[in-house]
Design brief:
The complex is a heterodimer. Chain A is α+β, with helices and mostly antiparallel strands. Chain A has 19 helices and 21 strands. Chain B is an all-alpha fold. Chain B is globular. Classes of the chains: A alpha+beta, B mainly alpha. The interface between A and B is large, with 82 and 79 residues.
């Protein structure tokens, strides 16, 4: 092939490639840097789904930027801010009345009415919808007038309802009532033009990014005085860690919600990156990492053994060395720092545990575990050897290191633990089916109520396959009774809740069905290259996280607070 | 000649069938299943989780016995329906693959062809002079032994982070939308260059060494010595040697294709380049049966097609085969 043919064919290939990649050209060709917010850390795959019902899968911001909830919840102050709802109150023991805000319109111009809320709640009657559980305690829902909704409960589960009103989006009835059941679950293909009440709309996407554009006519600007500053929000699909880190350092990424090991050095080293706290633990706490123990087998069925195990684990090393101080050691109750008011310090002082190898060894001896064969590790009371396997997903390097620390430190006290790293699906399968000894789990995120955590710990009945809670398979009917009582306590009855949580803590610290280790952070690395006035401990107390479930916890407010950095 | 190609075709079809069946089987034997892991990411109550699992198992056709799933697979395949991705629910698999295919082709085809051509030329050139040979040989060995992702990370760090000459992620700038502009084309090229370079360099080393060895062997053959004793110009002898040395290289290319595709996979992961390799890696991790089957189908077809093309080229290039077929 001579040179000319080669050049022509290369050029033709280039044009064809571009033609294949360029879809119907979007109106905007380049996003001005000072109007664009680049984020990352949420999308693990190409944006493929804009359906807020498939809530494990929708593109970053679908719920939050486009679809909105009735209330916005602030975990740092434990307040429900009226959002699409103007107010919501318990008009009787079993009735909750929602008054919607007047003048809110959907992106297609239709008005938000009570019918939309009724439709959204009734959609829960489909068993495959993630929030179908609410119909276990709801009786009916009806639209009293255009802006008022009355919800009648068969059992007033206050805490779960408090979760529903901020954690679920309101759907447009005039569009969704036309959908078939398959379309509702997103099975008929994705809908890249989601219509919501929120300030952003879909602009474009491709396998490596999701682009939202601000739209006019958002109700919040007038009603709440909020104006999200970026015109474009470009969410970049997660690649490898080096990519996220490189982009943040280059100023190409404004907010990274990735877990970047070693970020503490960068924050201290003057690279223009900062985190919520300027010093350890650097990050707000987002969820608790627990050591789940299979309490159906010996010796883990013995609370004294579990207590000894908890006392033998070197959490300080995990926090300092494995995580470089970007996580926080967990309180013995396992409750996140935002639920500090529910921690009964007296109970913790009396029954709590902390890292102490000698004490752990003593507890083992007191409980009757002795080292029969002299190998340095204790045996079961019936003489059989103890060798517990701890599993974490392969590739989750921080957890892999953590369980090595767990195994080492437990070994110092005399408990033999070995580590294993099956791949994620295999590990999840093992946990659900109860074929494990020890595992690290962190399923429950920051939410409006510690009921979430206690339900996770104590839920009954135990099924063959435990898919969501109580992986430890711990049976304590008294505890679960208390959990259900907690659910029936109003969310603003703090004293009432504290009375119950204190009892629950007594149980959890005596029996220790699951051991809280550390709090994972709401990873957030922010760059000052283009935007400033980010949330921080010294500044605005919001949570700068784009993950699903976090936009409705104050997201709009930090978007509004952003300012452009002074240009040179 | 027709019989030759008919036999080849049959062989490829059988290979295709076996390869696709194995690909279909293996993810299903891994522990765990994709629907459970998908549902485990939902914050739902157990009853809702159970209902969702039932629903999605039904949607994905995973609730029928395994032999029936296999038959369903072939029936839909022959109708051109590759199913819906589980990990990228609810995107159809065909759509995902079509989005990723241009990037992979843009990366693989130039890298393979250029590395082959340039490597061979350079290897032949190096076989001429001893001093050049001494420099090229170790360099070639180092390059060909370098793992693809190590070279990719090295290039990303050096040229991307330290010198900031090239970007290190994505297919085109995050501030651009696709359009027929020079700016967009430029951004595409900029993002393409480093992944291309890492694939090119490793291949280049391999071909250079191979060609250099073959040329030296050919130059030592009887016909070369005879020609040179007759006083033929160096250039003529070298061009004959080159033509002979090309043939084993072509066969080598056919064998290398699988390795190169794997190399492209890790390179794409390092650069977050949205090609088939990156998707297949994610599909494996997430046990997305349908996406994995679909991508693998394309890879198998691509590799078999490429083999077929190389067979054709071989026939054209080697007169002995052509004559043999016409005669027999």
């Amino acid at each position: 092939m001579n040179h000319r043919t080669r050049f022509v064919s290369l050029a033709a290939a280039a044009v064809l490639t571009m033609a294949a990649i360029a879809p119907a050209a979007a109106q905007v060709e380049e996003y001005p840097r000072n109007e664009t917010l680049y984020t990352s850390g949420t999308q693990w795959g190409a944006p493929s789904d804009w359906n807020p019902i498939t809530d494990w899968n929708y593109a970053m911001g679908t719920f939050g930027l486009v679809y909105e909830p009735l209330f916005d919840y602030d975990p740092l102050t434990n307040e429900y801010l009226p959002w699409l709802a103007e107010s919501g109150e318990w008009t009787s023991d079993n009735e909750y009345t929602i008054k919607l805000r007047d003048g809110v319109t959907w992106a297609d111009g239709e008005a938000l009415t009570a019918d939309d809320v009724v439709y959204t709640i009734e959609l829960g009657k489909l068993p495959q919808v993630p929030y179908s559980g609410i119909w276990n305690f709801l009786d009916s829902v009806e639209a009293v007038d255009d802006l008022t909704v009355k919800v009648t409960f068969s059992s007033p589960q206050h805490q779960q309802w408090g979760n529903f009103i901020y954690n679920r989006p309101v759907l447009p009835e005039h569009i969704w009532s036309q959908k078939t059941e398959e379309e509702i679950m997103g099975a008929n293909g994705p809908d890249p033009a989601p219509i919501g009440t929120g300030p952003y709309q879909y602009l474009t996407h491709d396998p490596s990014r999701m682009v939202w554009q601000k739209r006019d006519g958002w109700w919040g600007t007038e009603a709440l005085g909020l104006d999200p500053k970026p015109t474009y929000i470009v969410d970049i699909v997660n690649g490898s860690n080096n990519v996220a880190l490189g982009l943040v350092l280059q100023g190409g990424l404004d907010l990274s919600n990735n877990f970047l090991p070693g970020v503490a050095t960068l924050v201290d080293g003057g690279y223009g990156i900062h985190t919520y706290y300027p010093e350890p633990p650097y990050m707000l706490s987002a969820n608790t990492a627990w050591l789940a123990m299979n309490t159906t087998e010996q010796p883990l069925d013995d609370p004294a053994f579990r207590k000894a195990l908890a006392t033998s684990i070197d959490v300080p090393t995990i926090v300092n060395v494995v995580y470089g101080n970007i996580v926080k050691a967990a309180d013995p109750t396992g409750l996140l720092p935002t639920w500090e008011q529910f921690v009964d310090q007296d109970v913790v002082d009396q029954l709590g545990f902390s890292y102490d190898t000698a004490a752990a060894a003593q507890m083992l001896a007191d409980a009757g575990y002795v080292d029969v064969d002299g190998d340095g590790f204790v045996e079961n009371k019936d003489g059989s050897p103890i060798d517990l396997e701890t599993i974490v997903p392969n590739g989750w390097t921080d957890w892999m290191e953590s369980i090595r620390v767990v195994a080492d430190s437990a070994g110092q006290a005399g408990i033999k633990i070995h580590t294993a790293f099956p791949d994620y699906n295999a590990r999840t399968d093992q946990i659900h089916s109860g074929n494990f000894d020890l595992a690290i789990v962190n399923d429950k995120q920051l939410s409006n109520t510690p009921w979430d955590y206690y339900n996770y710990m104590f839920r009954l009945p135990i099924l063959d396959s435990q898919n969501t809670d109580n992986f430890a398979r711990y049976e304590n009917p008294e505890a679960f009774d208390l959990v259900q009582q907690l659910d029936l306590t109003p969310v603003d009855d703090i004293e009432g809740m504290k009375a119950i949580t204190s009892q629950l803590q007594t149980i959890s610290l005596t029996d220790l069905p699951i051991i809280p280790l550390w709090y994972n952070g709401a990873w957030a690395q922010m760059s000052d290259a283009v935007w400033t006035n980010w949330p921080s401990d010294e500044g605005n107390h919001y949570i700068p996280v784009t993950w699903g479930g976090y936009w409705q916890m104050g997201g709009m407010r930090w978007l509004d607070a952003l300012e452009l950095a002074a240009t040179e | 000649m027709r019989r030759y190609f008919a036999r080849k075709l049959l062989f490829y079809l059988v290979t295709f069938f076996v390869a696709v069946t194995i690909d279909w089987l293996i993810p299903r034997f891994a522990p765990g299943d994709p629907v459970t892991s998908m549902i485990s990411r939902v914050a739902a109550q157990p009853e809702a989780a159970a209902a969702m699992m039932d629903y999605f198992n039904g949607t994905f056709g995973l609730d029928v016995p395994i032999w029936q799933q296999y038959l369903n697979f072939w029936t839909s395949l022959l109708q051109g329906d590759l199913g819906v991705s589980i990990w990228l629910f609810p995107q159809p698999v065909t759509r995902v693959i079509m989005d990723a295919l241009p990037y992979t082709l843009a990366l693989l085809v130039p890298a393979v062809l250029l590395a082959f051509w340039a490597g061979n030329k350079f290897g032949a050139f190096a076989a001429r002079k001893r001093w050049l040979d001494g420099a090229v040989l170790p360099l070639g060995y180092i390059l060909t032994a370098t793992p693809y992702m190590w070279l990719a990370i090295l290039l990303a760090w050096l040229l991307g982070s330290v010198w900031q000459v090239f970007p290190i992620a994505g297919a085109y700038g995050f501030n651009l939308a696709p359009a027929f502009t020079f700016q967009f084309a430029g951004s595409l090229l900029q993002h393409w260059f480093l992944p291309f370079l890492s694939l090119f360099l490793v291949g280049f080393g391999g071909w250079a060494i191979g060609m250099r060895n073959l040329i030296i062997y050919e130059l030592d053959a009887d016909y070369s010595r005879y020609l040179s004793s007759l006083g033929a110009p160096d250039k003529l002898i070298r061009s004959y040697a080159y033509k002979n040395a090309r043939l084993p290289q072509l066969t080598g290319l056919a064998l290398q294709l699988g390795v190169i595709v794997t190399g492209a996979l890790v390179t794409e992961v390092v650069f977050s380049y949205p090609g088939l390799g990156w998707y297949s890696y994610q599909a494996i991790i997430n046990q997305d049966y349908f996406l994995l089957q679909g991508i693998f189908l394309f890879v198998v077809i691509g590799v078999l097609l490429a083999n077929f093309v190389i067979d054709l080229v071989y026939v054209m290039v080697d007169p002995r085969v052509r004559l043999g077929m016409e005669g027999g």
